[in-house]
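Retro notes
What went well: the complex prediction finally ran end to end.
Inputs used:
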Amino acid sequence: MNDTPQPDVVYFNLGRVWTIALNTLVEVTRQKVFYFMIVFALLMIAAANFFSIFTFGEEAQHTLQLKFIKDTGLGAIGIFGAIIAIVATAQLLPAELENHTIYTILAKPVHRSEFLLGKFAGSALLLVISVMFMGALFLSVVFLKERHLAATNHHQTIELAESALANQKDIPPAAKEQILTQARQKADQLVADIHKTAGYSGIVKALVATLVKLLLVAAITLMLSTFATSLVFTVVVSAMLYFAGHLEPVAQRFYAGSQTVAGKLMSAIITWVVPNLAAFDLADDLFAGTPLAWLKVLKIVSYGAFYLLVTLTLAHLFFRQREI
Amino acid sequence: MRRTALLIVLVLALAAAVKAPFEASLAADRPALARSAGVNIKMREQIGQGLSLALLGGFRALVADLLWIAAHGAWEERRWFTMRQDFEAVTMLQPQAMFFWDLASWHLAWNASHAASTDPAEPRLAVRLRNQRLWIQAGRELLERGIANNPDRFELYEKLGWMLKQKIEDPCGAADAALAAVKRCQSWQRDYLQRLAGYWLEECAREKNPARLREAYDYWRDLWRREYSQRPREHWDTIDKNLSKRIQKLEADLAVPESERLFPKPQPSATIPAKS
Amino acid sequence: MLAIETDGLTKRYRLGLRRADVLALSGLNLRVEQGEVYGLLGPNGSGKSTTLKLVLGLIRPSAGHAKIFGRPCATVASRLDVGFLPENPYFYRYLSGVETLQFYGRLCGMTGATLRQRVEELLRLVGLTDAADRPLAGDSKGMLQRIGLAQALIHDPRLLLLDEPTAGVDPIGSKEIRDLIVRLRGMGKTVLLCSHLLSQVQDVCDRVGILNLGRMVLEGRVSDLLRDQKRLAITVENLPDAARAQIKQWADDWGANLVSVEHPQTTLEDLFLDAVARARQQPPNPP
Ligand SMILES: Nc1ncnc2c1ncn2[C@@H]1O[C@H](COP(=O)(O)OP(=O)(O)OP(=O)(O)O)[C@@H](O)[C@H]1O
Ligand SMILES: [Mg+2]
């Protein structure tokens, strides 16, 4: 190696980013995040078995049962994901500084941007794996519930018709057959309706949007940790920004009506700087019966990508001049 | 150092500049995200929604579900006031779910009001009737709040129409609500809503407000021209046949000049072309 | 070309609005030739680690600049040819010795068989072959120090920056590390090492510089510095025992055969203490 002359410029290299990312992934999986997965699994099982049959608006029953599972699943994935994103990401840089490993890494021909992106990518990989795992579990529970609801509803509808016929002896066979055919049609319709309510593509869309949101939350946390002096600061401010991001639409409205200078300033910051995290919550649309087209989901994803770029650029600018 | 600060400001400025148009475009797909989405709602309600959003985060919808189940328990035990409180909370937590506004307002205006009108503990008829009206009013207010929260959705306007028609006996209000629903509906329900609006409008004109008879006629005539006259005759179902009769009756009642009628009386000499 | 070259390298740490700044390093002009072992000495807080961090671009100078093999330290390319052992090194607790070295190797663009071979070679070099496959979590200070050395050497750099390489290592381990440094010099490497374990530095360094309060107070070849100019040692031959007591005054008169007059050596330790004491007596000129 000594005899060949070294190049004068070292270019940004994705291989190094990947090396750091994989190492970071190993690091974050050693934190106790996977306990969340167990809690999630228990939650889903509980949600699936929560309802006994009940009639509060008869036709809405299966809608509500499926909604309950979906709300539990999406809610838990969102919250657990956010906790994982914030807690796992917040300690990446402090741990590197504390262990002095950052000295040895940055003393190698490694760009700071490669290091930072690698750290982010490691945390992002963890989030992808977690959301995929929880999402798969979630979809299976919805699937099982759908099958169960479809079977019972189908069975009940036909049984109802049969028992009605059994009580009336003097019906001609042709009419009997017609009534049964109608009942079967109705049952099939019900099954199709339940399948539609389950809304798998909507769930997948909501999961994709949630994942993008979680990546953004992780990026924001990483950015904060590039200049934070304590872990607590990073975690607290990240959590605050997480809430502020969800409050962003409300803040925008408040901005229009606020009178005080402090109120105006606060909401102005939220309106102009903080990304609208509520835009990534597709659960409401899912349930309002208006699942978004993939193209529109893509637009939301690109909104997330845009903010991801902004956040990581800021993180790089802070980290570039950080004294280590 | 100074250059970095400058770059940071630059990136933030760029982000801020792109933010508004980007979000406006997202809001075009999902009206609930629009800046104007909350203008119809009272400030107090907005803050409540915002706070619940912040405090419960992703579990907001789940808490709404649990409260809904609590409301169900209250309904079973006929604790109407508790049920109403639960409904208020549920709709505040998930104002975008049509399902909740719809069913909650229905329970208030139909079930709770009926229970009040037949309350065995209240011997005075006048009081029972007043209580019935109050429950219907409560249902209506809830539904109207739902509309304020989802001004672009047609479903709740339709429900409001039914409520005005059946529980408040206001076909004119019902007609206006149905017209508002038609304006917002692009799906297959539009066909049905258009006719619903016409029936209620005609009913309004004939029973309450004769001044609107012309409006009802114009509405049917436009609808006929736009939607039904194009269809091949054999595809006309009973509704459309019924519709042509309605229009004919309105033309007679309003004494529309023969030349302007959709269904002019056959003129023996004029309509049969002469053979050459 | 010099291995390390600094010009007026200065570092001032800002501690916030209320407190005074710390001048950790002031106007350092360091020149390290290729192939030499240079020892940077100084009491705690004298700016040794600061110098290394500046040279590696981990922190930025308040004034002046530094170069490695002619490349400015702000560039990533300047680190192509450097290996660094920080003070008190720790590594990822969950990686074994082999995994740790592979990680650093990949960062330097090494892969596959080349990397595996190099890792094995280094483990043998630093004497860690037994412990290669267990996680570093339970490793002793000496082990960590050896892994640190190995990772610094992974990409076979021409220059090594070692911050207290023998701190916390037992005498035997310390001796082994010093032997390793000597061996590295034999391989043509340049080494800059920081220490305050003077007797150890004495054995391995060609040149030393002594820092105090961020300033270089003394610099030179070890053999020159240790030559005491005030006294003479005279080695005489065939001197009768009786004349011994008077030998200093009367050597010539006695007509003894003068074989050699040599400069006797003190210890580096004395020199160090003396230099620091003197520097403390005369307060440094304000910069
Ligand atoms: N990040 C920092 N912020 C503020 N002051 C610092 C920082 N790092 C070092 N210093 C101060 O700079 C001075 C030089 O520190 P440095 O670590 O370079 O000393 P050293 O010679 O390596 O000491 P030691 O032998 O203890 O390792 C010390 O006074 C130290 O307190
Ligand atoms: Mg030090």
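What we learned: Residues 14-154+199-321 of chain A form one domain.
What to try next: split runs per interface for comparison.
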